[in-house]
Design goal:
With 170 residues, the protein is α+β, with helices and mostly antiparallel strands. The chain has one domain (6-23, 33-169): Nuclear Transport Factor 2, Chain: A, CATH 3.10.450.50. It is globular and about 50 Å long. Strand 5 (142-156) and strand 6 (159-169) form a beta hairpin. 35% of the residues lie in helices and 38% in strands. The longest helix has 23 residues, at 40-62.
């Protein structure tokens, strides 16, 4: 008999919502800019801003700068995030895990491989993609993999942050 725990149910719900939102924007083949309720110029601006935000997150991780990296996630109680089956209830819990993880590493490199941004409104956008990471731990052990990522971004006070997201790797 298959048993599903609370976190798996919440993660599946989050992914279902993201998938429904993404599907609701009819996509033309080979286009990276999606247009539901925003103009072409707004779409271009939103895509550029989300790409910049996600680039800053990758750079902060590569520099092991926890205070800059945590800015990627929204600070509201609406923020939900899951990583490889682990559900984070809030931004503080992510901050704690990242901070402890950085202490265990000598070096870290994070690089986006591909990203697709779909503006939904002027203050809401979905992004899916993948990134490669390579960590060298203090004992010289290396962890390297490619991660799948999906997320819903919200814009507050002229800043984009992840309000709902998921990432997983092998």
């Amino acid at each position: 008999m298959l048993t599903i725990n609370k976190y798996q149910m919440e993660t599946r719900f989050i992914l279902s919502v993201i998938l429904i939102v993404m599907i609701s924007c009819q996509r033309e083949a080979n286009k990276n800019i999606q247009n539901c309720s925003v103009s072409k110029d707004e779409s271009i601006r939103i895509v550029q801003e989300i790409l910049k935000t996600s680039d800053e997150w990758a750079e902060a991780n590569s520099n092991k700068n926890v205070d800059n990296a945590i800015e990627f996630w929204d600070s509201s109680t609406d923020m939900k995030y899951a990583e490889n089956g682990v559900f984070f209830a809030n931004r503080d819990s992510i901050h704690s895990v990242i901070k402890n993880y950085y202490k265990q590493t000598k070096s870290m490199n994070v690089e986006w491989l591909q990203r697709t941004v779909m503006p939904l409104t002027t203050n809401l956008a979905a992004m899916s993609g993948s990134f490669h990471f390579k960590l060298q731990f203090m004992n010289d052990e290396i962890l390297e993999d490619t991660t799948a990522f999906t997320g819903l971004f919200i814009k507050n006070n002229n800043n984009w942050s992840l309000i709902q997201g998921h990432e997983s790797f092998k």
